[in-house]
Amino acid sequence: MLPYKTIQEAETALGRALTTAETLWFNYSATKSDYFLFCHNILFLFLIFSIVPLFYIFIEFVYKKVHIYKIQPKVKLSYSETFRCYRDVMRMFFLVVGPLQLVSYPSIKMIGIRMGLPLPSLGEIVAQLAVYFTIEDYTNYWIHRFLHCKWGYEKIHRVHHEYTAPIGFAAPYAHWAEVLILGIPSFLGPAVVPGHMITFWLWIALRQIEAIETHSGYDIPWTPTKYIPFYGGADYHDYHHYVGGQSQSNFASVFTYCDYIYGTDKGYRYQKRLLWQLKNESKSSGQQNGGSYNIYTGDLKCD
């Protein structure tokens, strides 16, 4: 709850007029407790898990012109299978994710996430989000590698790999222990560089939206994330699910630099080179014979 009863008191304390964003924040949060504001995380996560994947469901079942960008076109889930995935995710949400959010408020206060005024500048938000993504990506990489050891995979991570051709709803589909374990990397960034609750909300939202995109099963060329340096994306992570099992390839959650540095993207890069060669050979053969070939190479697999 803000320590100011009026906007005039807030402006006097800050020594300046409130910005439009700060005025909106004051009007919304002034009479609400910090705990109530923190619990907005639950609503945001529910809406993201429920609404964002609907875009990919739409192009899967309705707008089929986009199927040319489907990474594994041979795999088609039914309506019932898709709904079952969402149902299982929601069960985990209400039994694990939601209760975890309700009890994690003290840790948020302990690391210094603030909810008052002033609001952070756009530059501050961007800089902090960059730190959060970098820290989460690096720590997630190593935890993900651990989950692919024999014990980690058989006891925990195999649940997430039930979808060898992932869909948007399957991004948070995982064993309850994995949900808890992978919450640690998401928390480390804000713990190292604490910011405002609004930045924390943006971080949680962007990270989950990114996870949904990388599990979408569609490598859409016009997505804005194509312009982010070292970004993995759907094609990159889809290969990890496709190989599956004891795969030692493409552990990255967001960026690809860790896989490159530690040599865990060799299978993916080998497959890409092979597909490129086959594509060029098919073009050359098609030109020589006065036609073209439509080659699907989705069954190539190398870890």
From TrEMBL:
Domain of life: Eukaryota
Compartment list: Membrane
GO biological process terms, semicolon-separated: lipid biosynthetic process
Keyword Membrane: yes
GO cellular component: membrane
Keywords for this protein: Membrane, Transmembrane, Transmembrane helix
GO molecular function list: iron ion binding; oxidoreductase activity
Family assignment from sequence similarity: Belongs to the sterol desaturase family.
Tagged with keyword Ribosomal protein: no
Transmembrane stretches, start-end: 35-59
Domain Fatty acid hydroxylase per the UniProt entry, residue ranges: 130-264
Pfam families xref list: FA_hydroxylase
Entry protein name: Fatty acid hydroxylase domain-containing protein
